[in-house]
Amino acid sequence: MDLKCPGRMASSPKSSAVVACPSCGREVELFDDEPRVRCRCGQFVYRQALPSCVQWCASASLCLGEAGPMESMKPPEKQTNYQQAYERAFHAVRRRSRDDLIALGAREVGTVRYELPVLDQVFLIDVGAGTVALSDGLGRAASAPLRIEWQILALRYLSAPAPRMDFGKWVSFAELPGAKVYDPVYRGRVLGRLVATAGRDRETFVEACQRLGAERFEGGDEGFRFQVFPRLPVAILWFAGDDELKPGVSFPYPDNILSFFSVEDVVVLSESLARRLG
């Protein structure tokens, strides 16, 4: 049903574009004077879609599905979506000043070259060459491979448009604005993965966290705080199971995390951390 005023349409014709909602996949119509429209699911849809893990995550098809209304959200080939996200992120980093990067914890090691601590590793970001690699500790790229998800996350961290350096409290994933739509995916790809691997028992969990340099954190039956990026910690709580229940885990996040990453990126970051744990 068309509820737009025909008189106004006739006197002031507009062009429109149909854009898929990044959360639910529903097609939303945007006119040329509308920078954004709210989808029925509650998510804002922009004329030029904001960067999303849907555009680069290799597991996006598993997350969103490939049938029904999600078909329009089916991601491109793995190499294509990674490359596009990588290039966009590097373009954003190049627009940041040297002082901006240093304020985020990057250390200058040469002309437009920076080292960035990430968990128990150090990344080498060569802004001039457009590369992200593990550092050998001497300002040079190491030969060990670095997963593309971590490369993109590091670039997204460094290119955050308005990062809040301090945080006031820890919050759960469910407390993050816009997280509800991703909850089933988060439970499976993050919590489920961790419980099935490093979180399967206390000893394995503690050993895995300490291996990544995490510090003890109050909460749960075991708790650890990870300095994922210099200005962005993440914690993990482990809860012992019993004869009827398996062990459980939860991720407290700093309440400023969405000033660095989108909710989609928080899912990818959490899954990547769970993968590093084992």
Keywords:
four-stranded antiparallel sheet; 278 residues; alpha+beta; 3 domains; 8 helices
Tell me what you see in this structure.
The protein is α+β, with helices and mostly antiparallel strands and 278 residues long. The chain has three domains: 70 residues, no CATH class; 79 residues, no CATH class; 108 residues, no CATH class. Helices cover 30% and strands 22% of the residues. The chain has eight helices and 14 strands. The strands form five sheets. A four-stranded antiparallel β-sheet has the order 5-6-7-8. It is globular. The protein starts with 5 loop residues before the first helix and ends with a helix.
Short description:
By secondary structure, the chain is of the alpha+beta class. The chain contains eight helices and 14 strands.
Please write out the topology.
Elements: H1 6-11, E1 16-20, E2 27-31, E3 36-38, E4 44-46, H2 60-64, H3 78-94, H4 98-103, E5 107-110, E6 113-118, E7 121-126, E8 131-134, H5 148-158, E9 170-171, H6 183-196, H7 202-211, E10 215-216, E11 222-229, E12 232-239, E13 248-250, E14 253-254, H8 263-277
Antiparallel strand pairs: 1-2, 3-4, 5-6, 6-7, 7-8, 9-14, 10-11, 11-12, 12-13
Helix pairs in contact: 3-5, 6-8
